[in-house]
Design a protein that fits this description.
By secondary structure, the chain is α/β, with parallel strands linked by helices. The chain has 30 helices and 32 strands. It has an eight-stranded mixed beta sheet with strand order 7-6-8-9-10-15-16-17, sandwiched between helices.
Amino acid sequence: MKLIWLLGLLVSYGVISDGANSIPRRPPTVHVGAIFTLNSTIGKVAKVAIDAAIDDVNSDPNILRGTRLVLTTQDSMCSAFIGVVEALRFMEGDVVAVMGPQSSGIAHVLSHVANELQVPLVSFASTDPTLSALQYPYFLRTTQNDLFQMAAIAELVDFYRWKQVTAVFLDNDYGRSGISALGDKLAERRCKISYKAGIRPYPSKSEITDLLVKVAQMESRVIVLHSYAELGLQFLSVARDHDMMSNGYVWIATDWLSAVLDSSGPLPPQTMDSMQGVLTLRQHTADSKEKKVFAARWSFLTEKQGPASFGLNSYGFYAYDTVWVIARALDKFFSEGGTITFSNDSRLQAAGSGSLHLEAMTIFDGGEHLRKKILETSFVGLTGLLQFDKNGDLIHPAYDIINVVGTGYRPIGYWSNYSGLSVVPPEALYLKPPNRSSATLLTVIWPGGSTAVPRGWVFPNNGKQLTIGVPNRVSYKEFVSVVRGTDMVKGFCIDVFTAAVNLLPYAVPYKFVSFGDGKNNPSYSNLTYMVASDEFDGVVGDIAIVTNRTKIVDFTQPFIESGLVIVAPVKKTNSNEWAFLQPFSKEMWCVTGVFFLVIGAVVWILEHRINDEFRGPPKKQFITILWFSLSTAFFAHRENTVSTLGRLVLIIWLFVVLIIQSSYTASLTSILTVQQLISPVKGLDSLKTSEDPIGFQVGSFAENYLAEEVGIPRSRLVPLGSPEAYADALLRGPGNGGVAAVVDELAYIELFLSRNCKFTIVGQEFTKSGWGFAFPRDSPLAFDLSTAILQLSENGDLQRIHDKWLKSTSCSLQSAEIESDRLHFKSFWGLFLICGISCFLALLIYFATMIRHFYRHRLDEVVPPANGTPRSGRLKTFLSILDEKADESVSRSKRRQMDSSNSIGTNSFNL
């Protein structure tokens, strides 16, 4: 029995021992590396933050649970070569993760090594957008991607309605990638980088000066400076020396400047003077108790660095959180059975026969497992919630927008990828639905001390003249014309452009270049295409603003309204002896005549029993009906109406007669005095359905509009080159080789009609457009000239220029609606309906009263009719009641009542 118990105990002990050994024991230490430039603005802050985080992790028993992190730090010394060499040393040891690198150039190289050796690179400072998670799966970023910083700058540019920026950047992987991302984000908002000024990593002061001189000659005054701290400060200093920090300039620095302001403490006054009014961005970190506690520890942590203390910037917070990201990922790694083991790479073994000793580098077997645990990390650190999205970027990217003023700076708002620009902290907006429609920022103090938003653009002072194309017209030269034998250009459009340019707050050198052969009006579509293809810097003339053109160029505010209208010939009609019948159509005359008779008959019926004027012999009564009804047309009826129903019908009829009479008078006057159209074309609809040829001006957009929008065959469209050709074609008409109508813009037609009284505008203007000056897309000059044109309109100068060139009194313009159509019954049927209903109701009430009276009469009758059927007798009695006078009917009723009373009395006496 004891033997059996002992065997069972041994078996149980073995099972328990095997179960305990199934979970690998955690190693006592884990080696991690860090590589960055220790003496840089970011590096010296990151070094202190990382050391503090290592101490905090190792002192917390709830994180690695007995395992200690051992940190090895390498200094890249601002050199990509040294950085790569130092990083490769990590790979010779048992390093499971590397924090950094700080440089994007080093990150690109080491990411290839990390992919091969499966060692995660966890960077808190490399913001290059091209470090893609697809190409470099082992490169993990615990800071914000520059793609979001450039999105914030693009939204800032669009918020202030600037269209172009000049990009000054460091010409390396970091600078080029950031500016490329900026260009993409600006393009999404129809803005662009007008000039890219790249510079080598370590330039001399003269090189910086030469570059900024070129920048000053550009038209854009919005400058985005994307650099590292030391070079960026040199740029701002040289810019101040060359008066590029004055009114009109806008400087936007990326987050390198905020890092300098946060970590460098009080800067020298001369340095602060060189950045007054500059806007910069800072990676947003949410306020929290943990953040305040760490900031309070900072002065103690930096004491060991020496007497030259420095402040804490946002990169320090991200460096601290990076250590915790790795620690938490390792804790999950170990909890899920991960082990720290390395294996040799056969390819490196084959390549390591030389002096490089590549065979010393080994593959981290658990690298893929650890990488996944890092991406699954989610906790609240000093920077807020640290969690990765599907692209490997931190969620909720956000930036503080800072304005450098005086001896420090002031926040003017925030940007987040969630809700855009706002003065509300992003973490408060995450609780609400996203809303980008209410973007707002606080007031900015711009370079030069002004609070007015700079225009962001001035005309460049590099001596370049704008080449302005003008159409060489052969007709309507009042608008624009080239003086033969000279380079001079004159006309209404030229004067408007000159006056607008004179109102600009800067000089605009330009020269006019004519376009066209001088024999035919040029194609205005081709002229605008030449602006889009940079053959012209702009076009000035009678250029219609239409959809196809606005797709390729930008137009100024219209300086004259000019839609398409139709012109047709007119003639003076001589009135004949039957002109008085023309105002009404045949249908109208017939209906009106019938109603005159109906109204006379209705009034006679209503008045016959009670009105002596409507009684008498049948012949007299018939004449009375005719006379009464016709005399109401002139309100000259002599017969009085005494019945209520008769007066009601008469009042409504007299109202109808008043409307008809007034309309007749107006229509007859128009027929006798207004000219009538020769052409059957009376508007766009009749133009479309007709088969007659239609004229248009050579070079005008009217041809394409009529063919493509209206659907008129091009075979019907006849090109005409001058006002004289218009007049000749219209007078000849479609039957003699001419046209039935001409379609052209209103501005031309007004000038044409001022000298040709035989023609007029038919129908309404069927397009709404205007003329403007054309410039390349997103040209700031188009915006400034639009403002100047509005100013010309408000002060009256635009009208004075118009009167100078286009006002003519030789012939008054005709009315746009020239034909006087006859009056038809459909225009008055409502009045006749009201009148008819009133007559019907009056007769209905009247006959109901008479029927009631008839039945009373029958009850009063004692003796039935002697002869005839009872039905015919009742009809005769009813008609007699209708015909007899009302007082006679009453008297007869009273006599019958008395006879009935006497009869009753006699019978009683006999009884």
